[in-house]
Automatic annotation (TrEMBL):
GO cellular component: cytosol
Gene3D superfamilies in the cross-refs: lambda repressor-like DNA-binding domains
GO molecular function: DNA binding; DNA-binding transcription factor activity
Domain HTH cro/C1-type positions: 12-66
Protein name (Swiss-Prot/TrEMBL): HTH cro/C1-type domain-containing protein
Record-linked Pfam families: HTH_3 (PF01381), Peptidase_M78 (PF06114), ScfRs (PF09856)
Keywords assigned by UniProt, alphabetized: DNA-binding, Transcription, Transcription regulation
Domain of life where this protein originates: Bacteria
Species whose genome carries this gene: Shinella fusca
SMART domains recorded: HTH_XRE
């Protein structure tokens, strides 16, 4: 019967050093040669079952110490090096395993330092938001990653680009697609640029939603995509050719600091232009007012998805032809925020969007249902919110469906202009906050973190409703 082998050289070396033994002395106690012990400590020979038992009996070593925490440390280090700041630094996991095995205390220190860094970054962000709400400028934030720079800039300004919107409307009128926009766009791509659109099966493009082959001039789309998402991908390819001048002009005006940020923003502007082409401003604005901003009616009328119609509602800010100033927030069930936008900028200071009591989180328990709430902030500001889950690209049988939730909101003063205002007319407001760290509501059952503005009220004689009572 083969013996079980364990490579634990660094641990044996730590045990020997802790006992104050030389290699010769320990080797004598284990009835092996010093050279063999040296090979064991360098992980060039395994620890057999007999050696493990001898270590346990001669030096009173707990066998768990030899098989212990390296796997756990490796998992924690993997979390650290998954951070965007460190992504790509390691070619594989073997170095993490070596660090965790050879120097577990160092690995533990790295993990603690990283978690402290994340905690301090979160606190600085929360304090910056708090100061912004009170009208104070702040320079607490450090250098941003390109994606963060794009998000911050786009979320803080109105989600309306006049030149792109007007150019998309003119292009749509010249195209005159009728009820067959997808066919008209494919025909234009083929006629004007020789680009042919092809739908490919999942096994051919397992990790891509679309790919443009410049050599064969073919645009490949994954069959994972819904017909609505396929239309948007074709529209994005079209606008990057037909509206290139307007998109690059907006990029120059936004003045991003790096080429990578500019590349990401170009994709976001192409997405914006695609929505403007699929739902031309004047027609969509008129339909939205007639339907009282009913997203389901609008998506059926324009042949788009719920997410696309809701996104377009946040863009209605043409001077003299503005709609209700909606904003939107998309998140997953772990609370990660993917996209925020607003007709007048996302109202981060007034609304926040980080409260666990918002309907966007409850939507995951009722997939496909529309949840309408009137929410009230601690300062009395009230908002109408409409939340619903979204289904991502379709996977195969063995894949888990990607599901996110979308919140569309507006100031409560506009509620009666929408079809959703009727749903909250007779109900009370839901008391929410910008985020737990910025909210001072006491006795909140949903509180997940203590506020940064108050000391914790730790009293062994009194226990409040929240896990984080504060003074």
């Amino acid at each position: 019967m083969a013996e079980n082998k364990i490579f634990a050289g660094p641990k044996v070396r730590r045990i020997r050093n802790a006992l104050g033994l030389t290699q010769t002395a320990m080797a004598e106690g284990l009835s092996i040669s010093p050279s063999y012990l040296n090979l064991i400590e360098r992980n060039q020979r395994p620890l057999t079952v007999q050696l493990l038992l001898r270590l346990a009996s001669v030096y009173k070593v707990d066998l768990d110490d030899l098989q212990g925490e390296s796997a756990g440390h490796a998992r924690q280090l993997r979390e650290v090096f998954a951070d965007p700041l460190l992504a790509g630094e390691l070619p594989g996991d073997h170095e993490l395993v070596e660090i965790a095995d050879a120097a577990p205390n160092v690995a533990s220190g790295i993990v603690k330092l990283y978690r402290a860094y994340r905690e301090q970054a979160a606190r600085l962000t929360d304090l910056a938001d708090l100061l912004a709400r009170e009208g104070h400028a702040t320079t607490l934030s450090g250098t941003l990653l390109p994606m963060d720079e794009v998000r911050d800039k786009l979320e803080s300004r109105p989600n309306y680009f006049a030149a792109i919107d007007e150019a998309a409307e003119r292009f749509y009128a010249a195209l005159s697609p009728g009820d067959e926009l997808a066919g008209a766009l494919k025909g234009w791509l083929r006629k004007e640029h020789g680009v042919v659109v092809r739908l490919l099966p999942v096994h051919t493009m397992p990790t891509l939603r679309r790919r443009f082959d410049r050599h064969s001039m073919r645009l490949f789309l994954s069959e994972r995509l819904s017909p609505f998402d396929q239309l948007r991908e074709v529209a994005m390819e079209t606008v990057q050719l037909a509206l290139q001048e307007e998109i690059f002009a907006e990029l120059d005006r936004l003045a991003f600091s790096t080429a990578e940020a500019k590349r990401i923003a170009r994709f976001e502007l192409a997405r914006y232009a695609a929505h403007a082409l699929m739902m031309p401003y004047e027609a969509f604005h008129a339909a939205a007012q007639r339907a009282r901003y009913d997203i389901d009616v609008l998506r059926a009328r324009f042949g788009v998805s719920y997410e696309q119609a809701a996104n377009r509602l946040t863009m209605l800010q043409r001077p003299g032809r503005a709609g209700v100033p909606f904003f939107m927030l998309e998140t997953d069930n772990a609370g990660n925020r993917f996209r925020r936008a607003g007709a007048q900028g996302f109202p981060q200071a007034r609304f926040g969007g980080g409260c666990p009591k918002l309907g966007v989180h409850a939507a995951f328990s009722q997939p496909g249902q529309i949840l309408v709430d009137r929410v009230e902030m601690p300062d009395g500001a009230a908002f109408l919110t409409v939340s619903r889950t979204l289904e991502g690209p379709q996977g195969t049988f063995a894949e888990r469906v990607r599901r996110t939730a979308l919140l569309v909101g507006c100031d409560a003063t506009h509620a009666e202009e929408t079809v959703y205002g009727e749903a909250v007319r007779r109900e009370g407001a839901v008391a929410v906050g910008a985020a737990c760290r910025l909210c001072e509501r006491q006795g909140c059952l949903a509180r997940a973190e203590p506020p940064v503005t108050r000391p914790l009220g730790l009293d062994e004689m009194v226990a409040g409703l929240s896990l984080f009572d504060f003074q």
